[in-house]
């Protein structure tokens, strides 16, 4: 089976990464949008609504906060392009509300669990025939966070970005609304 193209779009907060990814996705015919955000407070509800308003009505939206690999495999049946927004929110969801193991009880087990979920997701991406565009945040370019949970989140986000970049055919970094292609083919080191 030949797999679809995997494109990773990274950027900081309000960098324009989602808008760029949406422009890439709009080149497809049957477009699916996989949303991972949780509407936990009023401000997040507004952000989600802005994303909804930007999307064309013809796009098929699925909201899934944890089981994104399974969701992509289901969406493949009726989409030739799937836009996942956002990988970083998915990591946050796994870190704070995943069922196994308890965050407070065992940090090492939580980290191992999430890394395993990331590897399973990467495998799922490689098994579908449709093109996948994955949006994620670059959060490692700032100061070292002052608490353990924030450091774990930052570290897991960086590991996740690296794992997905390994399997991606193209990787873009968006800064100030400008996409910079940082990978367009497999780099042999």
TrEMBL record:
<comment type="pathway">
    <text>Cofactor biosynthesis; adenosylcobalamin biosynthesis; adenosylcobalamin from cob(II)yrinate a,c-diamide: step 6/7.</text>
</comment>
<keyword id="KW-0547">Nucleotide-binding</keyword>
<feature type="binding site">
    <location>
        <begin position="11"/>
        <end position="18"/>
    </location>
    <ligand>
        <name>GTP</name>
    </ligand>
</feature>
<feature type="binding site">
    <location>
        <position position="85"/>
    </location>
    <ligand>
        <name>GTP</name>
    </ligand>
</feature>
<dbReference type="Pfam" id="PF02283">
    <property type="entry name" value="CobU"/>
</dbReference>
<feature type="binding site">
    <location>
        <begin position="52"/>
        <end position="55"/>
    </location>
    <ligand>
        <name>GTP</name>
    </ligand>
</feature>
<keyword id="KW-0808">Transferase</keyword>
<keyword id="KW-0067">ATP-binding</keyword>
<dbReference type="GO" id="GO:0008820">
    <property type="term" value="F:cobinamide phosphate guanylyltransferase activity"/>
</dbReference>
<keyword id="KW-0342">GTP-binding</keyword>
<dbReference type="GO" id="GO:0005524">
    <property type="term" value="F:ATP binding"/>
</dbReference>
<dbReference type="GO" id="GO:0043752">
    <property type="term" value="F:adenosylcobinamide kinase activity"/>
</dbReference>
<protein>
    <recommendedName>
        <fullName>Adenosylcobinamide kinase</fullName>
        <ecNumber>2.7.1.156</ecNumber>
        <ecNumber>2.7.7.62</ecNumber>
    </recommendedName>
</protein>
<dbReference type="GO" id="GO:0005525">
    <property type="term" value="F:GTP binding"/>
</dbReference>
<comment type="similarity">
    <text>Belongs to the CobU/CobP family.</text>
</comment>
<feature type="active site" description="GMP-histidine intermediate">
    <location>
        <position position="51"/>
    </location>
</feature>
<comment type="function">
    <text>Catalyzes ATP-dependent phosphorylation of adenosylcobinamide and addition of GMP to adenosylcobinamide phosphate.</text>
</comment>
<comment type="pathway">
    <text>Cofactor biosynthesis; adenosylcobalamin biosynthesis; adenosylcobalamin from cob(II)yrinate a,c-diamide: step 5/7.</text>
</comment>
<keyword id="KW-0169">Cobalamin biosynthesis</keyword>
<dbReference type="GO" id="GO:0009236">
    <property type="term" value="P:cobalamin biosynthetic process"/>
</dbReference>
<dbReference type="InterPro" id="IPR003203">
    <property type="entry name" value="CobU/CobP"/>
</dbReference>
<dbReference type="InterPro" id="IPR027417">
    <property type="entry name" value="P-loop_NTPase"/>
</dbReference>
<feature type="binding site">
    <location>
        <begin position="35"/>
        <end position="37"/>
    </location>
    <ligand>
        <name>GTP</name>
    </ligand>
</feature>
<keyword id="KW-0418">Kinase</keyword>
<keyword id="KW-0548">Nucleotidyltransferase</keyword>
<feature type="binding site">
    <location>
        <position position="63"/>
    </location>
    <ligand>
        <name>GTP</name>
    </ligand>
</feature>
């Amino acid at each position: 089976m030949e797999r679809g193209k995997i494109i990773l779009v990274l950027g900081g907060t309000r960098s324009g990464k989602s808008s760029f990814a949406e422009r890439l996705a709009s080149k497809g015919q049957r477009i699916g949008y996989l949303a991972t955000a949780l509407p936990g407070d009023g401000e997040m509800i507004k952000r989600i609504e802005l994303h909804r308003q930007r999307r064309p009505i013809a796009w098929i939206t699925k909201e899934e906060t944890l089981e994104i690999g399974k969701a992509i495999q289901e969406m493949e049946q009726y989409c030739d392009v799937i836009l996942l927004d956002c990988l970083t929110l998915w990591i946050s969801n796994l870190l704070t509300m995943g069922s196994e193991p308890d965050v407070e009880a065992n940090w090492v087990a939580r980290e191992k669990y999430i890394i395993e979920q990331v590897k399973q997701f990467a495998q799922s991406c490689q098994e579908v025939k449709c093109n996948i565009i994955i949006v994620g945040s670059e959060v490692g370019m700032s100061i070292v966070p002052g608490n353990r949970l924030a450091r774990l989140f930052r570290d897991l986000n960086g590991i996740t970005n690296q794992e997905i970049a390994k399997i991606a055919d193209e990787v873009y970094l968006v800064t100030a609304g400008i996409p910079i292609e940082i990978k367009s083919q497999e780099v042999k080191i």
